[in-house]
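Hi V.,

You were right to ask for the full record rather than a summary. Here it is.
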Amino acid sequence: MNIGDRIPEVLGINQDGKEMKSSDYRGRKLILYSYPKANTPGCTAEACSLQAHKSELEAAGYAIIGVSKDKPALQKKFAEAHNLDFPLIADTDTTLLQQLGCWGEKVACGRRTIGTLRTTYLVNEDGVIEKIFTPKEIKTKIHAEQILKHIAEESR
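Predicted structure:
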């Protein structure tokens, strides 16, 4: 997906088994971020950064949703272990990840694999993508700060 595209209506099932739809967030801005694997160092750092700054992000009008290929039980365990109080979509068949364009070839430790490309989409109140943070831009430990900096720059 690209800036200006509308995110899919059906987002998937979250860690509690609830179906998530983009229309549930109409009228609110959304941070929709994809991550490779729950409970790994980078993904944990990113999720904890977002959780630590959740009140600031909400004050700016944003809700947070994470998505990975992990099963609902692992997503739930991840959320509980790190006190994450935002939805984590269990996209086990990679439908949403593929629709978003964040499922593809990547290189890790010199090996080429297919998997989730860490990406963050800032979505407006109408479900339209306004900003994309690509894998090379995202710094997991300070990702929420990166988002807040972007929001501040855009509001000038």
